[in-house]
Amino acid sequence: MRIPVKIVNPAATVPRPAYSGDDAGVDLASVADLTLKAGERALVPTGIAMAIPKGYGGFVQPRSGLAARHGITLTNSPGLIDSNYRGEIKVIIQNTSDEDFRISVGDRIAQLVIMPVEIADFQVVDVLPASERGDGGFGSSGR
I want to staple 25 with a disulfide (CB 3.0 to 4.6 A). Which of 59, 82, 96, 113 is the partner? Predict the structure, then answer.
């Protein structure tokens, strides 16, 4: 699948997988230098915009290494990029650790997975079809 990418900041990096051909996601990189203080979050620009095909969505997810080693995660994970969005992709990063974390231009800050999505047509009904779970909520399946 080809996805048109527009560079909106000259420091931008075109998304690419770390291991060509084997990765489900591609890396997104920062075009800003900043320090995320302990517990702080920031909207970090990537310097790119793209045209995701209709019927697909872009799902922005944390990088597991940053999460495991530094407590860096995404506040709204996964972030969703709709197929009709054409603006710059920005990532809401949060530092959950008790130490400051430095982000430099070019650092890989998140990963993007392109996946097919169904467009739902919601219909109001009086009664829903029965299911084994029914209306059991949080904790209804036990520990």
Answer: 113
